[in-house]
Amino acid sequence: EIVMTQSPATLSVSPGERATLSCRASQSVSSNLAWYQQKPGQPPRLLIYGASTRATGIPARFSGSGSGTDFTLTISSLQSEDFAVYYCQQYDDWPPRYTFGQGTKLEIK
Amino acid sequence: QVLLVESGGGVVQPGRSLRLSCAASGFTFSNYGMHWVRQAPGKGLEWVAIISYDGSNKYYADSVKGRFTISRDTSKNMLYLQMNSLQPEDTAVYYCAKSYSAYDELDSWGQGTLVTVSS
């Protein structure tokens, strides 16, 4: 099983500042990596797929990068609605055994 | 727009069974892989199972293999999760989700249904 490790577990950032979230895979997942945002009481929402492609309707302040084992989600200028939990997920494994990271909670500083 | 609505959750005793349903609309259901993903209270996301667009291929997380069965009825635009031999650690919100195409990212999610396994 491919293990996904996110860091940090909690990130405190002020509105308007940049946030950088990391995700590491235990083995290469190529670019088969997605990022999701989840707010309390809501289902996850797809932000980024293919490691760097924004999903439909996702603002340009969200960007993804990386390939292989190391990935980054960057939020360039934090808005109040961005404070949430973020998960990375790989979909490279075969047969399919999708795995999520444990999540990074982005909180207001 | 894509709409996924789960139902069938509730409180069940350990060792018993439960079947979850997910009603899909707003897209051509028969063209896409579909997933179940769960989230224990206060915890992260755990992928549970995927079924291919035509129902011919099914894959499961090790934690549920042999106990859970994913299925679909294309004529009704319905996704199901039959859960047998339920244990307290299966307590979670269960989400159905749509694949972007086949075996890739999950681009649409339902609101979830809560399953509580407790005596």
Number of continuous helical runs of chain A: 0
Q: How many distinct beta strands of chain B? A: 11
Largest interface in this structure: A-B, 25 and 22 residues
Indicate the overall shape of chain B: globular
Strand content of the residues of chain B, in percent?
Answer: over 45%
Assembly level? heterodimer
Average pLDDT over all residues of chain A: 97
List unreliable stretches of 5+ residues of chain A: none
Return the string of H and E elements of chain A: EEEEEEEEEEE
> Which structural class do the helices and strands of chain B define?
mainly beta
**Gap between N and C termini of chain A:** 35 Å
- Helical coverage of chain B, percent range: under 10%
Order of helices and strands of chain B: EEEEEEEEEEE
Strand content of chain A: over 45%
Q: Count every beta strand of chain A, where a strand is a DSSP E run of 2 or more residues.
A: 11
> What overall form of chain A do the CA principal axes indicate?
globular
Per DSSP, the total helix count of chain B is 0
